[in-house]
Description:
2 copies of one chain form a homodimer. The first copy, chain A, has helices at about 15-20, 30-45, 70-75, 80-90, 115-125, 135-140, 150-155, 170-180, and strands spanning about 5-10, 50-55, 60-65, 105-110, 130-135, 160-165. By secondary structure, chain A is of the alpha/beta class. In chain A, strands 3-2-4-5-6 form a 5-stranded mixed sheet. The radius of gyration of chain A is 16 Å and the shape is globular. Chains A and B meet through strand 1, helix 1, helix 3, helix 4 and helix 5 of A and strand 1, helix 1, helix 3, helix 4 and helix 5 of B.
Amino acid sequence: MKLPEFTIQLPEWVAEYVDQSPPIFPEIEDRMDFAIDLSRKNIEHQTGGPFGAVIFDAAGHLIAPGVNMVIPANCSILHAEMVAIALAQKVLNRFDISDGGRLNFDLFATTEPCAMCFGAIPWSGVRRLVCGARKEDAQAIGFDEGPKPENWTTALSDRGIAVIRDVCREKAAAILNDYVNSGGLIYNPDLKSINS
Amino acid sequence: MKLPEFTIQLPEWVAEYVDQSPPIFPEIEDRMDFAIDLSRKNIEHQTGGPFGAVIFDAAGHLIAPGVNMVIPANCSILHAEMVAIALAQKVLNRFDISDGGRLNFDLFATTEPCAMCFGAIPWSGVRRLVCGARKEDAQAIGFDEGPKPENWTTALSDRGIAVIRDVCREKAAAILNDYVNSGGLIYNPDLKSINS
């Protein structure tokens, strides 16, 4: 048997967009804006769902971007957060982004994470999760975040991972509406699938 | 910026092992035995943690194997279940393994899934989850399954995904003990990390 293998590869337009970005993103809103731009461009380029995520270091340097690539890559685990986490770990060359708790890195997500991405966060080594749109914004247009615990923010903070919500929420939520209005697919409807 | 990319690639020994396997695995225990063998060999070859997972079709044909590769691949999302899901979707060329609910595929996991893998299952399109060792078996040796909802089996069955537990449980749990006794790393201890 030739073993299958699978490569996580960002759409080509991401490189150009990253090259145009500033060397540092000083404010938390600047960082979320960048993630939201990724989600918008992902719709425009038709390279996946309306979700972006980014790993930044504490000073605001971009470590790794992520966009939802479920449909074009035919892979249900490629939510934006999972892509950003995997690529940040590749860039940093370690499976624990915090390097044993010594370093602070943030995960920015344009919509609050689904059950899978939520569960991935404690293993990733990110120390802070910053969210744009809320679950309710995604649900309003038919997306589903999956079976996430009700107390998910507490579950993360109990593990030393801070959660900041509603950063540029309206702008992030508007992208979700743009996606639906542009005819974007809410996929796997029989399984009530998807988020981020 | 040259964009990072990341390839999910099984250890080389897996190909040889799969080549030696029968064309079909008739019984549910045969399928779990195969997954348990993967977890044991993953320890012997020092290619990751003591967890295996496999996607089988309803008749018992092997679609894609998975092993935990977090440490050697430096990627926290590479739990055995995630690897099996991503590679099965690659083999089948679709992000919904069930193809819109038409086809039944099972995910076998040598230990009950962690919070991340649990959350990934509804998006994958597998219609049945079959587990070996229990959470308690993994916790007994220091592993942590993360912030998974208490009612996780119900949460899956509510979404049309059957859960079968305790298949070859003792044999699967014995592998976890072998791993610790052989000096295997329980990683990310500061974040109470890992499972499967």
